[in-house]
Each structure stands twice: as structure tokens, then as C-alpha cells.
């Protein structure tokens, strides 16, 4: 009997081994990094360089030298290295171990946010400025700036010397997040954005460093025409303050002397033009981030960097000149996708003229953030902070694509929850317990209520007569929605209900002249995704879903059959041997 049990055990192991090895039959397609990114029509993405670790900012040499080894752009890494990329795309370490900062936990933990924040160049002097958070000798977190000296105009692969502005920041404690960030050189001035380090009660106080835009000369000294300047003491915060009341002005850009900021709120962000000496009112309350805003994002997209394409530029075509390009960190797990958002801002009217849209959108499933964005001589460059599925962390370049061959576009959103958020559905409707923030403007959109209400309409003879009457109206949108009405009337059951929902999302007045629902600008494809989501039956439990998946897999059945056959052969052979041995003993 022991032999029989051994044989059965061997047969079972053979079966399990073959099933476990069935994945060898499946050919896993090679990862295409393009599948992580969607870009606007008429553009494509090119991988420019790779091999970074947590890249945090990019800065281009305005007029790079002509030689292959002349610097083209600089890349900072969060943990304290500065890389320089040459014209031939070689990567050199310009500086490393710039500061001491060891997070308790590495990214994506929030404990890992601190480190090198921004970089900006001054070609006239050959200066490279970097901003960062570090631990001082007592272990306290401080902001700082280091200025590296290189060759004026074309810069260099290594610095000749450096100066730290440590004394300026030494009396003011910072935090793991909302620390010092972007910087920009304007003539002989250096502008720097500094977050409130989770101390909102200090953001509006000119005697405190946090929550401010700082302005200084290129040697780190305060400028006498700053609005709160009292003396030349480099340790007094008020001597440097240009504007106050920010939560995290990490995205900052100066255009023709005008300062613009993408300010991170908690659940809300704002885009704002910043005036000299003014207070932008962040006090820790969510509604305070709305004040003085030219545009507000709800929910938050988490701005990281801000760039501007001048009207005279030809890089991205005439449709994009004079626009701001805002890098956003987003949050994949919360359905707020990282990417680059375009902002159309009228400089004369001082207002945003259109709803900002995604120029670049992350479409992968893993966590990701877009933190480095910069215009180069031949396109718009960006650096995601995390490695992709192939383990590569790269700098990419967006360039025009006359053939329009790139396979993924930002409008191709596949997550219904993302479409619902971005189109504002939760402002009027409650969906699966979320939303309804705009009052009782729209009914809850549960599967049961939708089916019951829509089915009642479709079964009503007066409603069908109304649809027929609308077909005779020679005005828009009723002319262009005739086919939509016909599609509903020709369908049956849940197919008719699904088509009704699609019609309603695409054009709310398709069956109702007096509809108060706004046109959300959703495409039929987006509307179909949302309709399927609203009509979906409750999800199976995890274990049931796994079983269903296995049962539906042809490969699993193939492996099971092969394993079963092998198990039967092995077991049968073992039993035959056992019987033979038993007869020989007799």
C-alpha cells in the first residue's frame, strides 16, 4: 500500500508541475514603454536618454556648444546627484553627494519625498543652481541652495567651484514635503519657490521662510527692492520675500517679469499669477487655496513643474504657442493620472481662456509621477520619477509627428471612474456612494434605479411619440441625434438601456429640449465605457474571480488535460509495477 500512495503522490506532483509550468506555453509580449504614455494628436514620444535614479528636474543649456561632448541639459536626482547630458547623449556625473539626507523609507512612501528639488542655469556666468532639503548636523531638516561655477555660455562636465547659501536658510526648519522646490534666473535675480513644510500657520508670516516666493541676487543676498526688505541681513526671511501665502508653489515660471505658480493644495490645486508683495492666503483650510486663483483643479492633480512656450516658438506648432505646460504628479492609485497639462492663459485679460487639457497622460497601472519638464532645442522633454516595467528610468522627448503614428492619445481613457471625475459627473450625481456635491441636481446613478427608470421611459408610448416628433425638428442638436434616437428604438432590453445612457452622456438634449444637464464634451467611446460601468453587475469575490478566470482559460484546460494524462500514465504505471512485484513474491 505504501507503494500505491507513493505512486499517487508522484502522479499528483507531476500534474501540479505541468500545470505550474503551463505558463511556458504562453508567450509574454515584450514591454513597449510607449504603452505607458498617451500624447496629443500630431505628436510622438522619443526616448532620449536612460539610466537615472529618481530624476527630479531638468534644465537645458540655452545655447549649447557645437561639440559632441558639450553639455546639452542637466538632470537632478532626488538623492543628491546631478547628471549632465552632452550633445551626443552621453551622461556624466556633474556632482554627487551634494547633501546629507537619508529618508526613513524610500519612495513611494511619503517619507521619501525629500531631497533635491530644482535646478536652474545662468549662462551669462556659467552658474548652475540646485535647491534641496537636507539634514543639518543636529539632524534637523533645512532648505538650501548650492551655486556651481562652470564655463560661461557652454557650461562644463564638472564644476570649477561651488558656493552654498546655507546661512540664509539655517534658522528656519523645513519638512519632508513642501520644502524648497523650483528656481529660475531672471537677469541678475534668482527666484525660488518654498513650500510651507506642513506649517500652514506660518505661510502668511513674512518673518517665516515657509510658504513663500523668495527673490535674491545671484550671490544669495536679498534685493533692496523686495517688498518687505529692511536691511541686508541674509538671515532674515522678510528681506527675501517676494510673495507669501502658498502651500507648495513647486511649479513656478517667470514670463517677461511676471510670476506664475501652480500651487498644490490638499484636495484642490490652483494656477495663479503672483503679484509683488501680495498674500495668497493659504491658512490650512481647503477653501483658502481657491483665493486669487486663475484656475482651480478639483480634485488635485499635484503640480510639479511649470513651463511656458513663447509666441515666437516653432517647437510644437502654432496651436501651442503662448501656452503653459504644467507637469503633474497625480496619483495612479486614486485615479488622478500623472502627465503634462496645457493651460491657455490670456496675458492681456489675465484669465484662463479654456479648460486645461492633458497634452501627455500616463496610462500605466504602476505608480508614477511626472516631475521634470523642460523645453529643449527640438521638443518638450519630461522625466517620470519611477522606473517603468522594464526597470528603466528615462528622459523622454515629445516632438511633432506629421504621420500621426503614435498609438496612444490622452482622449483614450479606459478607466470609467477617471472619465466620471474629469467630466464632472460627481458634481450632480451620486455614483456608488461618491459625489452629489452639487446638491440634488441629478438622481443617484445606481444600476437598479437606472434600469427601472430608463425601462419605464422606453415602455411609455408618449415618450416614443416624443422621440418621433424630435426627428422632425430641423435644428441642432436634434438633426445630428436622429441616428441616436433610432438606435434606442431599434434595440431591446439592456442594449436599449445602454444606448440610452450613451446618448444622454454625449448630448443631453437628444430626447429633451429642456434638459438642464450640461454637455460634458464626452466622446461616444467614453460614454460607452461609462455606460458599461454603470450597468455592471456586482463584482465576484476574489476567489470566485480567480476560479472563473482559470475555467475560461483554454491554456489552463490544455495544461490540466496534459497534467491529467501524465498523472494517469504515471499512476497506472506505478500500479502495474506494484501488481507485478506482488505476483513475483507469490
TrEMBL record:
The keyword Iron applies. Gene3D superfamilies: Cytochrome c-like domain (1.10.760.10), TolB, C-terminal domain (2.120.10.30). Residues 1-26 form the signal peptide. GO terms for molecular function: electron transfer activity; heme binding; metal ion binding. Residues 411-538 form the Cytochrome c domain. InterPro entries: 6-blade_b-propeller_TolB-like, Cyt_c-like_dom, Cyt_c-like_dom_sf, Glc/Sorbosone_DH, Quinoprot_gluc/sorb_DH_b-prop. Keywords: Heme, Iron, Membrane, Metal-binding, Signal, Transmembrane, Transmembrane helix. The chain crosses the membrane at residues 555-578. Pfam families: GSDH. This is Glucose dehydrogenase. It comes from Chloroflexus islandicus.
Amino acid at each position: 500500500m505504501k507503494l500505491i500512495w507513493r505512486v499517487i503522490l508522484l502522479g499528483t506532483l507531476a500534474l501540479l508541475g505541468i500545470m505550474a509550468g503551463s505558463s511556458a506555453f504562453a508567450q509574454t509580449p515584450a514591454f513597449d514603454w510607449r504603452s505607458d504614455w498617451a500624447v496629443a494628436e500630431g505628436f510622438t514620444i522619443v526616448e532620449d536618454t536612460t539610466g537615472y535614479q529618481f530624476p527630479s528636474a531638468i534644465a537645458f543649456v540655452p545655447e549649447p556648444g557645437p561639440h559632441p561632448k558639450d553639455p546639452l541639459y542637466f538632470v537632478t536626482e532626488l538623492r543628491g546627484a546631478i547628471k549632465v547630458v552632452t550633445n551626443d547623449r552621453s551622461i556624466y556625473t556633474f556632482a554627487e553627494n551634494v547633501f546629507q539626507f537619508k529618508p526613513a523609507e524610500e519612495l513611494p512612501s511619503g517619507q521619501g519625498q525629500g531631497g533635491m528639488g530644482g535646478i536652474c542655469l545662468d549662462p551669462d556666468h556659467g552658474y548652475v543652481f540646485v535647491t534641496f532639503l537636507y539634514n543639518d548636523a543636529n539632524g534637523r531638516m533645512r532648505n538650501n541652495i548650492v551655486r556651481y561655477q562652470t564655463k560661461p555660455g557652454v557650461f562644463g562636465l564638472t564644476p570649477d567651484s561651488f558656493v552654498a547659501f546655507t546661512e540664509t536658510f539655517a534658522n528656519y526648519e523645513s519638512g519632508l514635503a513642501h520644502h524648497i522646490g523650483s528656481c529660475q534666473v531672471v537677469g541678475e535675480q534668482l527666484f525660488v519657490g518654498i513650500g510651507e513644510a506642513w506649517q500652514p500657520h506660518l505661510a502668511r508670516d513674512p518673518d517665516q521662510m515657509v510658504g513663500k516666493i523668495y527673490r535674491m541676487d545671484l550671490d544669495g543676498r536679498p534685493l533692496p527692492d523686495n517688498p518687505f526688505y529692511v536691511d541686508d541681513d541674509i538671515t532674515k526671511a522678510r528681506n527675501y520675500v517676494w510673495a507669501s501665502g502658498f502651500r507648495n508653489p513647486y511649479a513656478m515660471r517667470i514670463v517677461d517679469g511676471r510670476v506664475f505658480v501652480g500651487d498644490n493644495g490638499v484636495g484642490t490645486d490652483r494656477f495663479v499669477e503672483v503679484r509683488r508683495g501680495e498674500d495668497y492666503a493659504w491658512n490650512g483650510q481647503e477653501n483658502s487655496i481657491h483665493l486669487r486663483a486663475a484656475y482651480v483643479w478639483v480634485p488635485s492633480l499635484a503640480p510639479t513643474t511649470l513651463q511656458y512656450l513663447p509666441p515666437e516658438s516653432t517647437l510644437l506648432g502654432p496651436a501651442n504657442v503662448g501656452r503653459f505646460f504644467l507637469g503633474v504628479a497625480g496619483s495612479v492609485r486614486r485615479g488622478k493620472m500623472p502627465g503634462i497639462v496645457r493651460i491657455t492663459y490670456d496675458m492681456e485679460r489675465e484669465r484662463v481662456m479654456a479648460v486645461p487639457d492633458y497634452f501627455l497622460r500616463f496610462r500605466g497601472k504602476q505608480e508614477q509621477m511626472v516631475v521634470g519638464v523642460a523645453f529643449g532645442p527640438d521638443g518638450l522633454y519630461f522625466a517620470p520619477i519611477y522606473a517603468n516595467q522594464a526597470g528603466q528610468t528615462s528622459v523622454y522627448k515629445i516632438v511633432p509627428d506629421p504621420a500621426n503614428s503614435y498609438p496612444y492619445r490622452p482622449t483614450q481613457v479606459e478607466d470609467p471612474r477617471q472619465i466620471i471625475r474629469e467630466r464632472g459627473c460627481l458634481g450632480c450625481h451620486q455614483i456608488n456612494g461618491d459625489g452629489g456635491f452639487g446638491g440634488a441636481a441629478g438622481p443617484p446613478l445606481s444600476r437598479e434605479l437606472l434600469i427601472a427608470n430608463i425601462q419605464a421611459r422606453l415602455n411609455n408610448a408618449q415618450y416614443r411619440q416624443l422621440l418621433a416628433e424630435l426627428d422632425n425638428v430641423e435644428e441642432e442638436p436634434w438633426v445630428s441625434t436622429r441616428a441616436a434616437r433610432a438606435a434606442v428604438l431599434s434595440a431591446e432590453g439592456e442594449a436599449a438601456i445602454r444606448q440610452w445612457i450613451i446618448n444622454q452622456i454625449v448630448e443631453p438634449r437628444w430626447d429633451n429640449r429642456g434638459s438642464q444637464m450640461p454637455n460634458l464634451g464626452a466622446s461616444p467611446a467614453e460614454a460607452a465605457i461609462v455606460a458599461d460601468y454603470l450597468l455592471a453587475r456586482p463584482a465576484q469575490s476574489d476567489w470566485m474571480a480567480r476560479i472563473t478566470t482559470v475555467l475560461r482559460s483554454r491554456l489552463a484546460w490544455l495544461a490540466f488535460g496534459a497534467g491529467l494524462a501524465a498523472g494517469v500514465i504515471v499512476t497506472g504505471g506505478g500500479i502495474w509495477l506494484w501488481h507485478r512485484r506482488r505476483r513475483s513474491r507469490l
